[in-house]
Amino acid sequence: LSKVDPRLLELLVCPLTKTRLIYDAAACELISIAAGLAFPIRNGVPLMIEDAARPLTDDDLKRR
């Protein structure tokens, strides 16, 4: 799993809603509850584009 710089995580917001993101280290994703999307982190780099994100499932939302 790739580590992400904690300082970077403090600065990032959802590109669609401009709301805070939740770091899911186990899944290597940044979660935007407001947008209903999970943005992947690849090689330590968050892919902050809608096309790279996956929609959150009901199970994802229950875990938050």
Walk me through this protein's architecture.
By secondary structure, this protein is an alpha+beta fold. It is 17% helix and 27% strand. It contains two helices and five strands; from the N terminus they run αβββββα. Strands 1, 2, 3, 4 and 5 form a five-stranded antiparallel sheet that branches. The longest helix is centred in the N-terminal third of the chain and has 6 residues. The chain is globular, with a radius of gyration of 11 Å.
The fraction of residues assigned to DSSP E strands is 25-35%
Percentage of residues assigned to helices? 10-25%
Which structural class matches the secondary elements? alpha+beta
Rounded average pLDDT:
91
Q: What can be said about the biggest beta sheet? A: 5 strands, antiparallel
Please count the beta strands (DSSP E, at least 2 residues each). Answer: 5
SS summary, helix count: 2
Q: What's the N-to-C terminus distance?
A: 21 Å
Stretches where pLDDT is under 50 for at least 5 consecutive residues are none
What are the secondary-structure elements, in order, as H or E?
A: HEEEEEH
What is the CA-atom radius of gyration, in angstroms?
11 Å
Overall geometric form: globular
